[in-house]
Write a structure and sequence with these properties.
By secondary structure, this protein is an alpha/beta fold. The chain folds into three domains: 269 residues, 3-Layer(aba) Sandwich (Rossmann fold); 134 residues, Isoleucyl-tRNA Synthetase, Domain 1 (Orthogonal Bundle), CATH 1.10.730; 51 residues. The chain has 15 helices and 15 strands. The strands form five sheets. The protein has a four-stranded parallel sheet, sandwiched between helices. It is elongated. It binds one RNA strand through helix 1, helix 6, strand 12, helix 9 and helix 11.
Length: 501
RNA sequence: GGGGAGGUGGCCAAGUGGUAAGGCAGCGGCCUGCAAAGCCGCCAUUCGCCGGUUCGAAUCCGGUCCUCCCCUCCA
């Protein structure tokens, strides 16, 4: 079987190119995880969800993917935070990894093939630093620190387009005078009293920030692998330094394709700790259903910024609702049918081909979403066909669309993985909380209105409906009875959490 | 100061040479007691601005205005 060719935009070349696996049929992917010292926010989630879909898709079309995503569990920030909390740094990291896995799990992010931790990779890291010193790319200084010698690596700056002589060293941070070049960076940091440390040829210490990814990617994927990804803000210096380390140590190319995920913006600016404009995954999940969060992440191309706003999240909620209502309608139809019609091959091929084409082209999520929306619309259209159950052609097309939703969209986008009733209830619960709606009371009003309608007391029925509508509760009278949903009012607020209702 | 990305209808957002996907909102229609949902139709001669290349440009080139990201820890 011939695998389809995937095109990916490579940061190094600035172009979109076909990916040629180093090992036929296999792709090695390394993605930078997070430094675990506090709860992750929705910006981290975007990177995780993005690569979750990337890996799901690559596997779906037949690639054997080895997906590595690390946990940076020892670092200055972890030590600082642990000190503030009065607990052990490694304990804090351990706890935060558990929280991270829980948060990402709640978003339907699948576990990577390997999730290496820095503290479990010290031997490889020390060995790599030794190699770099041997090859003249690094030097130890008094005090037990080891720095990378950027001037020894001609390619330094090739990923980010930076030139050493143009960068502003020390602009905002004091330069360590033991460095040969202000841009030299730490490979190994000597331990201060009370800090976690490991023995090394340079004395007790711990790894610098960038070396762990060079070492761990090599351990699990070898010194040269296919794709390396991470958030856009890691391009420099993190990934630039990784290239210097890995290529310096191995003497050959490190990564074939560099993928960088755009940032999550709030009011046009990057979500960040310092601005205080960030929302933790936990907080957002309490207000927005996980499938809607995933949908939201898919509405923009992964390389572009995506705007975190109440409007966008409400829209995602509405779309996910629509997706599940259609799924329910399809399920109801087919579960009721004596002999299920075979999916119409033409219809299935049409949607599948376009869906795959969108994703094969640098993972164009919005284009893929457009195909999904067309499938939903087409299905709803066919579901309204007169004498549907005696219309073999329509049933065949619906079977194909159902197959497309469940066997193509579901495994790739990670949507529709939860029972539709549960998703719809989950969305309703969140919105009810947001708008202070008593669901039992709504049900009671509906019962009253049903009675009014049966008595053809339209005035009272409409008054009840209007009263609910004023509280964002919309009623839907169907042949099967009256159902309801909560519809958030138009825009205003910037983001969830800003306002409470 | 250097590097990078981007400015597409009221909003969100695809689209890197061939004559503007999709979604939301809005308008008309079908359906409905009336609605909602769903479906059908309409909705950018135009892609920040000014020039240029081309038979042809949102897409290429030059200039210009604006925004964001990186050059410090950042997903």
């Amino acid at each position: 079987m011939t695998l389809p060719t995937v095109h990916i935009h490579d940061t190094l070349t600035g172009r979109k190119s076909p990916v040629e696996p180093i090992r036929p049929g296999h792709l090695g992917l390394y993605v930078c995880g997070v430094t675990v010292y506090e709860l992750c926010h929705i910006g981290h989630a975007r990177v995780f969800v993005t690569f979750d879909v990337v890996v799901r898709f690559l596997r779906h079309v037949g690639y054997d993917v080895t997906f590595v995503r690390n946990h940076t569990d020892i670092d200055d920030k972890i030590i600082r935070r642990a000190a503030e909390l009065g607990k052990d740094a490694l304990t804090l990291a351990e706890e935060q990894i558990v929280e991270l896995d829980r948060d990402m799990g709640s978003l339907g992010v699948q576990a990577p093939t390997h999730a290496p931790r820095v503290t479990e990779s010290i031997d490889e890291i020390v060995a790599m630093v030794e190699t770099l010193i041997e090859r003249g790319h690094a030097y130890a200084v008094d005090g037990g620190d080891v720095f990378y010698r950027v001037d020894s690596f001609p390619g330094y700056g090739k990923l980010s387009g930076q030139r050493l002589d143009e960068m502003r060293a020390g602009e905002r941070v004091a330069v360590d005078e033991r460095k040969e070049n202000p841009f030299d960076f730490a490979l190994w940091k000597s331990a201060r009293p009370g800090e976690p440390s490991w023995d090394s040829p340079w004395g007790p210490g711990r790894p610098g920030w960038h070396i762990e990814c060079s070492a761990m990617s090599c351990t699990h994927l070898g010194p040269h692998f296919d794709v390396h990804g991470g958030g856009k803000d890691l391009t420099f210096p993190h990934h630039e330094n990784e290239i210097a380390q890995s290529e310096g140590a191995h003497g050959h190319a490190y990564v074939n394709t560099w993928m960088h995920v755009g940032l999550v913006n709030v009011d046009g600016v990057k979500m960040s700790k310092s601005l205080g404009n960030f929302w933790t995954v936990r907080d957002v999940v309490a207000q927005v259903h996980p499938e809607a969060i995933r949908w939201f992440m898919l509405t923009a191309h992964y390389r572009k910024p995506v705007g975190y706003s109440q409007v966008n999240l409400d829209l995602a909620h509405a779309q996910v609702e629509r997706l599940h209502r259609t799924r329910l309608a399809l399920s109801a139809l087919f579960e009721d049918l004596a002999d299920a019609p075979a999916p119409d091959p033409q219809t299935l091929a049409d949607f599948r081909d376009r869906f795959h084409a969108a994703l094969l082209d640098d993972f164009n999520f919005p284009a893929g979403l457009a195909v999904l929306l067309e499938a939903i619309r087409t299905a709803n259209d066919l579901l309204a066909t007169k004498k549907l159950r005696r219309n073999a052609a329509a049933l065949g097309r619906l079977a194909a669309l159902r197959h497309f939703l469940l066997e193509e969209v579901r495994p790739v986008f990670g949507l529709l993985e939860t029972e539709s009733e549960s998703v719809l209830a989950g969305i309703r619960d969140r919105l009810a909380t947001r708008f202070g709606i008593d669901q039992a009371e709504v049900e009671q009003r509906i019962i009253e209105r049903v009675a009014a309608r049966e008595a053809k007391d339209w005035e009272r029925a409409d008054a009840l409906r209007d009263a609910l509508l004023a509280r964002h509760v919309e009623l839907m009278d169907t042949p099967e009875g009256t159902t309801w949903r909560i519809v958030p009012p138009e825009p205003e607020s910037a983001a969830p959490g800003d306002v409470d209702g």
